[in-house]
Predict the 3D structure of the following.
Amino acid sequence: MIRRFLVLAITILALTAYSFGCTGDDLPSSEGAVTDYASLIDSLRAAGATVAPAGEVTQPFFSVKGKLIKVNGGDVQVFEYQDSTAADNEASLVSPDGSSIGTSMVGWVAPPHFYQPGKLIVLYIGENEAVIKLLESVLGSQFAGR
């Protein structure tokens, strides 16, 4: 009986010590995992997506050239800035529904979806729910678009 009590007490003590030693920083999280182009590609592939480079893209309202990637067949534009502050500054120019960026009014061929992890602005123009759900699982909620 005493032996059983000691084992129980030691187990409780060990679990308590372990739980105090763990913080949220120790746990894996997809939030914040994507910060640049390479980590975006890795995260999409880890989520089961087929990803292939598809060239470059230029948008007149963004100050950097973008890379076009095919994500499960959908065209996704990725704009990588020098740092997150530069990406934040350009993202702040995008209207909530994505219809204007700075002084540019945009007539999209399909609904735009803007995401902004780290030093990236990621733009998907389309209605493929599977692609949208995949992007949201890796990038979080869109900051602008429809």
In short: Residues 2-21 form the longest helix (20 residues).
